[in-house]
Design brief:
With 51 residues, this protein is mainly alpha-helical. The protein has one helix at residues 6-30. The protein is elongated and about 60 Å long.
Length: 51
Amino acid sequence: MMKISPKRLAANLTESLCALIWRALHLAKTLSFTDTSMKMGNLSVNGLPEK
């Protein structure tokens, strides 16, 4: 079994984290979210029956 040095492990984790962040930002850029597109009418607590 090959032993990985702490420096190499940190470098691998950093590279993976950077790639994950880049993908998340790229995906977020392609989605078109606006404040008005996320209406919460069905989740409103107004009008719930009292116990």
